[in-house]
Amino acid sequence: MGDERKNENKKQEQLEPFKVDDAKKHLTTNQGLKVTNDELSLTAGERGPTLMEDFHFREKMTHFDHERIPERVVHARGFAAHGHFETYESMKDITKAGFLQKAGQKTPVFVRFSTVVGFRGSADTVRDVRGFATKFYTEEGNYDLVANNMPVFFIQDGIKFPDVIHALKPEPNNEIPQASSAHDTFWDFVANNQESAHQVMWLMSDRAIPRSFRMMQGFGIHTFRFVNDQGKTHFVKFHWIPKLGVHSLVWDEAQKIAGKNPDFNRQDLYDAIENGDFPEYELGVQVIEEKDEFAFDFDILDPTKIWPEEDVPIQVIGKMTLNKNVDNFFAETEQVAFHPGHVVPGIDFTNDPLLQGRLFSYTDTQLIRLGGPNFHEIPINRPVCPFFNNQRDGYHRQTINKGKVAYHNNSLIANTPMPATEQQGGFAHYQEKVEGRVIRSRSESFNDHFTQPKLFWNSMTPPEQQHIKDAFSFEVGKVKDRNVRQQVVDMFANIEHELAAYIAEKVGVTVPNKHAVDNQKSSQALSQTHFAFSPATRKVGVILANGFSDQEIVEILDQLTASNIQYEIISDHQGKVTGENGTDLMVNHTFTTTNAVLYDAIYAGGGKETNQAFDRSTTEYLEEAFRHYKALGATQEGKEWLKASNIQVGAGVIEEKGAKQFAARFIEAVAAHRHWDRVIN
After folding, report:
1. Rounded to two decimals, what is the model's pTM?
2. Does 161 belong to an annotated binding site?
3. Which sequence positions are flagged as catalytic?
4. pLDDT cut 90: percent of the chain above it
5. pLDDT at 17
6. Does domain 446-529 have CATH number 1.20.1370.20?
7. What's residue 681's pLDDT?
8. 78-381 maps to which CATH number?
9. CA-to-CA distance for 270 and 625, rounded, in angstroms?
């Protein structure tokens, strides 16, 4: 028996790859055969045909021909990063989830952000819901918190998910439009499925065009359960809260960025991590005791409803930090597989009908996208804890199982692997008592579709409300069918008559006479102005010409760096820009390789050696940033550029004297993100 084990170990050692220094690596085939040439096919003579025996050509080309896998039906365009989650305090009293038991406990995570509707090649800054999916690699197995940047969803029941996605996607007759909800089939779905009203209000708000993945919230949407080690449960909703606050683009800016840099959000996340500006998000939970399930004027299991924070406060329980970019986009970001059914002991499900549908759908879609049932063995999906079972074979199997037993129960190997008891860490479903007739019906408590959308509207500031009006006007204005436009206006009159009247005027339909739902409540937490404002990691475009004021510019740039503001120097040429006293600064971009919409603020620093083209480009940058309510600053000759743009000092436009005073005022203006009190002609 001992000899057999020695031989087995020897065989295993032979399967391990040889270690080779990078400097000594040679090009090989996938079978390990070193190749002498990777540029020329094997031919019969210099001008003859390629030979079938060229196995290197066949292998290389076959692999290339099969490189693509089906993209995700939804959330196809995504970007991801690694990090860790740290628990602030023990949550043992309400959950036995192992990664939430000790203060300071750290758990590796992988997070994928995404848009929903567009294909992989679409732009980042389209108006859309954003995915915010987190995989926790815990010692008890992988836990996936599959969230969005909006806390509600379009539908209440999973059976309608194919319908809403079919309506959202490009219309099947011509596959137009790409990554957009501004078309007939989507708004026809909305008007005829009015449970979508709440989600649509969020979709028409600034939340649908986030400034950055680093500056958007994440919501688990569904009601889950926390279960403690005594078997007591609480209902829970999950919230990711970015430490940088919640900030958005303006619509005109978002559309222009889609053309100037369609990778804007992914580039922003990648650059921040490379710069050491690691994004941080606090994890908060809303908790309701089981006895209070019916204590509210909404159904807590309805995925089209929020739990207002004034009724159910958020308790912050930990912080996530993203600190490493992926090494390979395909192997990690594209192959990662999330599933809301990937839970650990202490986290369980509820009867939320949309959640129940997702528990089936996610595994089902991975089977075709990732080529079979072994997607859990792909490195990015592998648990960090050991896993054992009697499942075998299938496409892309990587585990080499030993022995002849592949079933349970058994006696040949002492019934191993054996199930774990709950005390040994085994997952035990919460024993909820369920009874009722087998029917296709929904509780009456799910039927109020307009009270919470009105709450959302009431909670918006006047600029946010105007943006919602304009978004509706744009989106519904793109609908060709007048009857659908009328249905949409009639529907949203149930929420706010002022909103419906505004849309009706813009899209050429009749203003309805119906009265909106009676709800005067508001929630401060729903407005983006409720969140923190900070200049940290903001990006400023600094326009300089040769002959700039050395001492002043260097002092101001140092102050920007001290506030952790990122800046790029823009001029009319690459290379260096030289100050009046000989100071050289490296130019990051010319006017043609970047654009004002790619910055949070513009600082016109000046410089004596300009020409008409330089001055014209500068004024265009200033005017663009001004129209998007961004901070503007000007010193020295920059003041003349500002004057030429007909932009007056005030409302985020800074011309303070003295480098120190100017920098302080300008940094304060940058931190404000937008200056909505500005008058735009």
Report:
1. 0.94
2. yes
3. 75, 148
4. 86
5. 64
6. yes
7. 75
8. 2.40.180.10
9. 24
